[in-house]
Sequence to fold (240 residues):
Amino acid sequence: MNFKLTKKRQAILALLKNSGTTLSAQDIFERVDDMDLTTVYRNLDLFVKEKMITKVVLNTDEDLYEYQSEPHHHAVCTDCNKVIHFSACTEDLEKLLRIKDFNIENIEVTVRGTCRHKRV
Amino acid sequence: MNFKLTKKRQAILALLKNSGTTLSAQDIFERVDDMDLTTVYRNLDLFVKEKMITKVVLNTDEDLYEYQSEPHHHAVCTDCNKVIHFSACTEDLEKLLRIKDFNIENIEVTVRGTCRHKRV
DNA sequence: TTGCAAATGCAAATGATTTGCATTTTAACT
DNA sequence: AGTTAAAATGCAAATCATTTGCATTTGCAA
Fold:
């Protein structure tokens, strides 16, 4: 670990770990005391580089980050924008993909639809 | 169709249709004559709204767009950033997803890895 | 051809993210 | 505990894809 696990960094990691879902830099900035938004961004980048967290690519305006737990996928509710996590067997998944001449390193599944908490 | 299919719009659609892959607004701007970048953006938004094209969510800096052909998925080469299309049986795919209480409307699979055109 | 709505171009605004730099904090070593 | 160099942070400004406001042009129908 070629960096210091400062209080601020611990705070960011704790937030991500405990939230159990994806958070944006702004989300984190609002929930932590005395931390510059720049620091949030810089540390998120660091954590991603160190593979401690993952940058999630959905179609949201802001980049989203999540704590590395187990490999999983995301469902986004088009009504309330809530992000739900789910799993799938990667081996089985890989068998279904009709892809050739490609060395697969990672598979991400993004589902869009509606969760049960419908809005009007 | 509550809009005019102008020459410029036809040009954008033709480009997307013929390219067979994803293009950014900038890509299109560079390949079309006498068209403002703003016009490209506005028409891409229009086409997406009209469901004539799709905005593809990968982790690239620019938004990417593609012509609606058949449902398919994307593989991104982490070496050369090339985007490859492939298909998968949606029904089979859906069976693998361990997701509950969610009304699935769309499944997108994004694969990351390397294609065969390795860079040094 | 006239007129009006839609389409376009241009310039400026927006907003998330990044960068430059001065200041503060950290951790290791006296 | 004091010293010090490197790393971390805060603040302001820059960046850059995308969007917006508005004036001008174009397309289509009466």
About this structure: Chain B has a mean pLDDT of 89. The interface with chain A takes residues 55, 57-59, 73, 75, 77-78, 84, 86-89, 92-93, 96-116 of chain B (CB under 8 Å). The radius of gyration of chain B is 16 Å. Residues 73-113 of chain B form one domain.
